[in-house]
């Protein structure tokens, strides 16, 4: 018997073939051993090392087991290997193209992951910076209000007393009032006793400042 390999686009089939002449006619007897995907002909990382002029051990083990399991098959394995190497060389351009695509896909995926990480890091840094600034502003406003409380208590100012100031100072105080009112407004601080007390003080200061 001799080996014959029928090659397709995505795989190949191995046949054990016999030819006999019976009554003057050639009688063919082709026994299919098995079918395999084309990439079964290649070793791991063979695209890096170059085409290896050999057949993977796992593939030969599978073919040997199939042949041993069929008593009607009797193949010369040197013939099988020789023909498999020929088919392997024919599939090699397809193999190289596939490995190139895999490399590019992996590279692209790594680049996308890096880009996602950079975007996340930038976004997180911005949010972190914003949060720090809000905390700083909150502490600044709280400290300013506490200072005004002390000053108000020290000078014993009444709620109906107006401070004397020029237009520029009033403009600055209006900005300060709006900022503090927004920070401690009840709508933004539901059921917060301290914010409610702060809001009372802020409104009291507004009246004293005459703004």
Summed up, the helix count is 5
In helices, the fraction of residues equals 55-70%
Unreliable stretches covering 5 or more consecutive residues: 154-160
The share of residues in extended strands comes to: 5-15%
Compressed to H and E, one letter per element, the order equals EEEHHHHH
Q: What about the largest sheet?
A: 3 strands, antiparallel
Please report the total strand number as a whole number.
3
Q: Look at the helices and sheets and give the structural class.
A: alpha+beta
Residue-averaged pLDDT: 78
Give the overall shape, derived from the CA principal axes: rod-shaped
Radius of gyration: 43 Å
Order of strands, main sheet, comes to 1-2-3
Oligomer: single chain
User: For the terminal residues, how far apart are their CA atoms?
Assistant: 108 Å
Describe the structure.
There is one protein chain. This protein is an alpha+beta fold and 211 residues long. Helices cover 62% and strands 15% of the residues. The protein contains 5 helices and 3 strands; from the N terminus they run βββααααα. The chain has helices at 46-49, 57-68, 77-155, 167-184, 193-209, and strands at residues 2-7, 11-22, 25-37. A 3-stranded antiparallel beta sheet has the order 1-2-3. Helix 4 runs antiparallel to helix 5 (193-209). The chain starts with a strand and ends with a helix. Mean pLDDT is 78; it is low at 154-160.
């Amino acid at each position: 018997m001799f080996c014959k390999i029928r090659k397709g686009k995505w795989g190949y089939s191995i046949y054990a073939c016999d030819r006999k002449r019976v009554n003057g006619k050639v009688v063919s007897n082709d026994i299919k051993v098995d079918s395999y995907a084309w990439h079964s002909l290649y070793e791991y990382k063979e695209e890096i090392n170059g085409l290896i002029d050999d057949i993977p051990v796992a593939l030969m083990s599978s073919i040997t087991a199939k042949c041993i399991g069929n008593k009607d098959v009797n193949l010369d394995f040197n013939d099988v290997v020789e023909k498999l190497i020929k088919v392997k060389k024919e599939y090699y351009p397809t193999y190289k193209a596939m490995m190139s695509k895999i490399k590019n896909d992996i590279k692209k995926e790594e680049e996308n992951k890096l880009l996602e990480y950079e975007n996340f890091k930038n976004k997180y840094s911005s949010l972190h910076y914003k949060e720090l600034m809000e905390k700083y502003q909150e502490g600044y406003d709280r400290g300013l209000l506490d200072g005004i409380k002390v000053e108000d208590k020290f000078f014993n100012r009444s709620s109906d007393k107006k401070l004397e100031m020029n237009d520029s100072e009033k403009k600055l105080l209006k900005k300060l009032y709006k900022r503090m009112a927004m920070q401690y407004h009840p709508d933004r601080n539901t059921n917060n006793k301290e914010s409610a007390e702060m809001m009372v003080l802020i409104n009291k200061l507004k009246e004293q400042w005459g703004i």
